[in-house]
Amino acid sequence: MKRGIWYAAGAYVVWGLLPIYWKALQAIPALEILAHRIVWACVFTFLLVIVRRQWRPLGIALRQPKILAAFAASGLLLTANWYIYIWAVNDGHIVETSLGYFINPLVNVLLGVLFLSERLRMGQIVAIGIALLGVLVLAFHYGSPPWIALSLAGTFGLYGLLRKTASLDSLVGLGVETLLIVPLAVGYLFWLGPAGAFGQVGLVTQLLVIGTGVITAIPLLLFAAGARKITMTSLGILQYIAPTLQFAIGVLIYGELLTPARLAGFSLIWLALAIYSLESLWRSRQARQVGNLTV
Q1: pTM for the predicted model, two decimal places
Q2: pLDDT of 209 higher than 70
Q3: Which of 25, 82, 253, 268 gives a 20 to 30 Å CA spacing to 36?
């Protein structure tokens, strides 16, 4: 159990620190970073699949059109999520990206209701209502809805919905996704040719670009290892590590503005998440007590 917590927490810490990594690549346009990330993630993921001898489920998946169609859709959603995130970080919107991942659990609940016929519990209704109020406060502050946050939460929520019914583990699934979208990335990089920024930056930056494959696959491995060893409730609480780190990085390291109105909107969303998490903990404890009584 303890090891599982460390694995999962490690994954969320890496995801939380990603803004620093993307900022180090700021000299390269977001779309070019994205293309390189897809290529190197594909390469590194397939190396891991070979090392872990998981080529059999990969081969089975690649021969089934329905699975390929589902992973093509999830791959496109993941690509959109990656691009929005990279662009937003390097355009000075780290705090708003953190908002997207703060509200993502509540978006997941809504998607479960809409697509999986799940029923909302009272605590979830209250949490979603307060979160919507927080989004409205932020929308009033910005003069428009916080599109970056909503786009990140929406694309990642829909991605999770598609992967929820997938029969492959996270590493093999990422291998299939990147394999299906890598032709687009390679085509774009060939189209850029010598005009691309990659050939014009220093060696350290080039190595960091290649390293995007590593920082994409390693947290997934840590997450998968942790998820197998701890409860979903624990995993749900640990997931707030990433957006908390992103928020702190945006405010403390890169000096993004935190106005009273912005803080009020975030505070409402944090309150909603606290209610959601406490309700989930209470339900989990109740379920364990019922289980102990029936043994």
Answers
A1: 0.90
A2: yes
A3: 253
